[in-house]
Write a sequence for this structure.
């Protein structure tokens, strides 16, 4: 038995799986960056086994986007532990999900604040001889009296700490309590599901428990923000006492990295936030230096935003130099850099003052400071695009990061090895260029391992949702014909559209029932969407079937696992391109300048193809599943779009008109 097999928890490899795992193991041995494009059913989660087989004492960190993906790796690692009993692992999700304390504001700021106050009080009491905080009368009385909406102390953190005497008589050191260490040891050896964590911790801080476990664990599974947010990642690695060069990094669902990274680095200023900042500064004008100078700037920013209300465009670019001139006009400042400097000092004071009062919500002044800094940076950094949105008398400004490349390259180069996996990283060459530019990257693309006879892949050659054809009655009627023909396929079905507007057009045209199946239209509100989806996926249990009408990239198109009878077919109507406007045009121009002729494909076409593939990917989740996949859009046949489809889909796609489509689906009816 070789080293890879010793860490592989299954009796045999799936088709092409061993090749994929050996590829990952080689990356772990030799270092560098690797990208794996492997369809559903390839056994991608077992890549963690390959990294462990070559870890040689290095920690393996797995970054995931959702709780469901985290649970997948917990199950996978529990299986690996059956063949490698000494394996230990832990996980971290966002503090908002793990924190039982409650209260308003950002959970990370709240945690930082209450830990600081709790530590200060515990140390003060320890110096008076009370080394076990949970047994201290004063601490317990303070906890009992505190405002639960604005907590200053955390009983869960307090329970996780004790004080021990150092070598010197007066020396005291805060250490993990025995209760915390015992629970953390159990976590490393047991697969505790996220939903069971609070009960398992039994009054301890869940985050502290999992962090304590993570320090000595072989594997840590965490969410994307722990990796892509610089501040959180630095704190995490410091707490783990590891350097990136000693970490093997695995990034799951890697097609999402770009959106997550750019989202973290973007910032928005709403008109109500500016008004709140004016109010906050007016209250500080007597007690803080430089406040009155900054207050002169804010009416200028408000006037800039008010002028944009008259724009006929819902979204457009604004000139950072024009904003700069408007902001400093009539003030004591010469430039944005000086404004940002003063705002930063004020924001820091405000933050400390709020924390001392148990207020952990980000203040408006802090939000304004971050925005002004981003506008200042946008003046010289083309990866940040300043824009505005105007609707119903309200304006918001945004400085949007449009290029994740610098961040992705820094992360890739810093780690001993970095492996990215996804079922939709096609074409790999485009994602490689988008994320890593000219860095050397090893790539592998796997074929679909599920039985070909279990699926039908179709691409229509006679319909489109291109803007020029949206009012064409013949085209609209043909799309309705495709949907109604598709509705003959047995079982639950899904039809995905590029936008809610197009969805509503065809929902009205098709009616509330198609071929006897009820139509479930994706609501805009998340709370309503969950209930409707649960009703839809339960239909097969009652011997019924329905059709969902949803939006590509929406609540019902990604991150959901419709196994077996839950979904027997998916159709994507149209190519889900983002709306083309001046902001999109500037983004494309940036990428064309960076990558030449590939720039438009990477920045505009590739995201649309991925949204379509993610929607189709809700079907055929196991080798036994059968289903029909339909691309109802002729543009998928254009060479510049077709190249973005996975090779197996390009090979299998039946190109048809409506008549041929009717004949093809008869077998599946």
């Amino acid at each position: 038995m070789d080293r890879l097999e010793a860490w592989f928890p299954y009796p045999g490899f799936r088709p092409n799986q061993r090749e994929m795992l050996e590829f990952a193991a080689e990356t772990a041995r030799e270092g560098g960056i690797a990208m794996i494009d492997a369809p559903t059913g390839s056994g991608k989660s077992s890549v963690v086994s390959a990294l462990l087989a070559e870890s040689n004492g290095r920690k393996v960190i797995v970054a995931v986007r959702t709780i469901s993906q985290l649970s997948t790796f917990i199950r996978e690692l529990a299986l690996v532990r059956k063949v490698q009993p000494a394996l230990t692992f832990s996980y971290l999700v966002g503090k908002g999900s793990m924190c039982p304390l409650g209260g308003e504001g950002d959970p990370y700021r709240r945690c930082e604040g209450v830990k600081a106050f709790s530590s200060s009080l515990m140390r003060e009491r320890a110096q008076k001889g009370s080394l076990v905080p949970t047994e201290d009368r004063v601490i317990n009385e303070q906890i009992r009296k505190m405002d639960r909406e604005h907590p200053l102390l955390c009983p869960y953190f307090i329970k996780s700490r004790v004080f021990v005497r150092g070598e010197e008589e007066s020396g005291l050191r805060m250490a993990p309590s025995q209760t915390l260490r015992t629970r953390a040891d159990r976590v490393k050896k047991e697969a505790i599901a996220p939903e069971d964590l609070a009960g398992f911790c039994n009054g301890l801080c869940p985050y502290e428990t999992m962090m304590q476990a993570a320090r000595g664990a072989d594997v840590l599974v965490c969410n994307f923000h722990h990796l892509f947010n610089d501040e959180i990642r630095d704190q995490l690695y410091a707490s783990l006492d590891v350097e990136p060069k000693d970490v093997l990094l695995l990034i799951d669902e890697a097609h999402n990295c770009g959106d997550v990274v750019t989202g973290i680095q973007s910032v928005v200023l709403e008109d109500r936030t500016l008004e709140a900042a004016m109010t906050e500064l007016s209250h500080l004008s007597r007690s803080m230096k430089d406040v009155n100078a900054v207050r002169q700037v804010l009416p200028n920013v408000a006037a800039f935003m008010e002028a944009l209300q008259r724009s006929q465009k819902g979204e457009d670019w604004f000139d950072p130099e024009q904003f700069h001139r408007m902001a400093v006009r009539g003030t004591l400042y010469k430039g944005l850099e000086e404004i940002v400097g003063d705002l930063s000092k004020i924001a820091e004071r405000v933050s400390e003052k709020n924390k001392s009062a148990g207020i952990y919500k980000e203040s408006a002044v802090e939000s304004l400071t971050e925005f002004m800094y981003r506008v200042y940076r946008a003046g010289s950094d083309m990866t940040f695009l300043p824009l505005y949105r105007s609707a119903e008398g309200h304006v918001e400004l945004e400085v949007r990061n449009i290029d994740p490349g610098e961040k992705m390259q820094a992360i890739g180069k810093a780690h001993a090895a970095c492996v990215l996996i996804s079922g939709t990283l096609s074409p790999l060459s485009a994602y490689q260029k988008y994320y890593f530019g000219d860095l050397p990257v090893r790539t592998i693309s796997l074929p679909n391992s599920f039985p070909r006879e279990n699926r039908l892949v179709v691409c229509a050659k006679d319909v489109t949702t291109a803007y020029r054809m949206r009012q064409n009655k013949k085209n609209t009627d043909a799309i309705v014909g495709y949907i109604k023909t598709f509705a003959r396929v047995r079982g639950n079905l899904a039809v995905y559209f590029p936008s809610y507007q197009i969805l509503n057009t065809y929902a009205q045209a098709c009616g509330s029932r198609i071929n006897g199946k009820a139509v479930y239209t994706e609501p805009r509100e998340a709370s309503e969407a969950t209930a409707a989806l649960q009703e839809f996926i339960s239909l097969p249990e009652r011997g019924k079937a329905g059709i969902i009408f949803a939006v590509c990239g929406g609540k019902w198109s990604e991150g959901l696992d419709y196994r077996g009878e839950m979904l027997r077919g998916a159709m994507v109507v149209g190519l889900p391109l983002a709306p083309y406007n001046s902001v999109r045009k500037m983004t494309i121009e940036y990428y064309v300048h960076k990558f030449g002729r590939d720039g438009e494909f990477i920045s505009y076409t590739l995201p649309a193809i991925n949204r379509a593939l993610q929607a189709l990917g809700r079907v055929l989740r196991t080798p036994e599943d059968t289903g029909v996949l339909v691309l109802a859009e002729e543009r998928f046949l254009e060479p510049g779009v077709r190249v973005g489809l996975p090779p197996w889909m390009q090979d299998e796609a039946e190109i048809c008109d409506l008549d041929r489509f009717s004949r093809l689906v008869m077998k599946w009816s």
About this structure: The first helix runs from residue 3 to 7.
